Amino acid sequence: NCVFRSLNKMNIVTRLSALCLRKSKMQQRHQSSRRPAVPLGSRILTDPSKVFEHNMWDHMQWSQEEEESAKEKAAENSVVKVQWEDQEILPEKRREELKTEDRSSENTKINSTNSFSHKNEILEEREKYWKKNYGGGSTSVQGYVYNKKQAKSLTDNPQGENCGEELDRLESFPGSDAAYRILEVGCGAGNSVFPILNVLCKTPGTFLYCCDFASGAVELVKSHSSYNSAWCSAFVHDVCDDALPYPFPDEILDVILLVFVLSTIHPDRMQGVVNRLAKLLKPGGMLLFRDYGRYDTAQLRFKKGHCLSENFYVRGDGTRVYFFTKDEVRNMFNLAGLTEVQNLVDRRLQVNRKKKVKMQRVWIQSKFQKPLLLSLNTPEETTERHPYS
């Protein structure tokens, strides 16, 4: 039974990876809406004279000359930077709010130290709860092992709130009864949400969370005929706001989709966003990432005066975009405590057959996994491991 569930869940991750590709395909708005004759990723250009026979060619290899030309174009359009006072990335009012939050955070640390004994009392109550509901000194929740220290970090409450209220909140969150949970960050109007739901509806015990910064986009998702709160929860969320809670506890997600979202965030904020998302994953959970790669056509097309900082630009509509290398991506997710499963540069040749124009597209596609928790208890206390490892 465990093997069957393992294969079933791995199949979900594989299908979600494919959905990432589909979403990127929709975002690029290819010239033809017809379904490709061959699977995405298997169309290789072997005869340059036939380049205009299809809209897209996969696994393109750049020559040294093409690489150097791309670097020169990026350097040229980055010479003139947008003045700091014109960037308005972080309004003055918000800067003051952040300073206030930082001071409040410091006070919280001091207060939490002073109330250490009270926190121990709360922890003891939580341990009683874990033992009552799951049994043993080592607790297995959704098939994962939590010892005393891990259980504390799962529901840590430095503010000293009532333990019973906290546990009630954790029990009553949307999707609390699900065995497999997914979060899509930056869901927009639901281009990926509903294909994912079509997959999940065939797999009982699954639940999808989806969030977006724009309230209008979230309302569109909720108003869709396929939306059902029984297996989906859409909510407005600013991933850059570390103080803003998610509508569910940490360490409960099996999969996070982060597709063409991180590139819209200021580079100074990216690591914080990744760190926070990593906390939401279960041990063994997977984060699927796809975004713009360095020297993509979109980067090379920027005119002078649109560069905010190195490899970070502002479009005409005011939205921002950053262009990654796979090493940058690896470092960010590793710093967040995630392990690399896949991290590749996806180079494709996009073709406008009518205008006879060729465009070199570059994306980064990655999978990062949260390591399985090794029990901190003694061997006598527990030898249980995650059933899907």
UniProtKB/TrEMBL annotation:
Keyword Repeat tagged: no
Chain intervals for the UniProt region annotation (Disordered): 91-117
Key words, A-Z: Methyltransferase, S-adenosyl-L-methionine, Transferase, tRNA processing
Keyword Methyltransferase annotated: yes
Family to which this protein belongs: Belongs to the methyltransferase superfamily. METL family.
PANTHER family recorded: METHYLTRANSFERASE-RELATED, TRNA N(3)-METHYLCYTIDINE METHYLTRANSFERASE
Gene Ontology biological process terms from the UniProt entry: methylation; tRNA processing
Amino acid composition bias (Polar residues), ranges on this chain: 107-117
A Pfam family: Methyltransf_12
Domain of life of the source: Eukaryota
CDD domains in the cross-refs: AdoMet_MTases
Domain (Methyltransferase type): residue spans on this chain: 183-287
First and last residue of the signal peptide: none
Identification of the protein by name: METL2 protein
Transmembrane feature ranges: none
Organism expressing this protein natively: Steatornis caripensis
GO MF, one example: tRNA (cytidine-3-)-methyltransferase activity
InterPro entries assigned: Methyltransf_12, METTL2/6/8-like, SAM-dependent_MTases_sf
Ranges of Basic and acidic residues composition bias in the record: 91-106
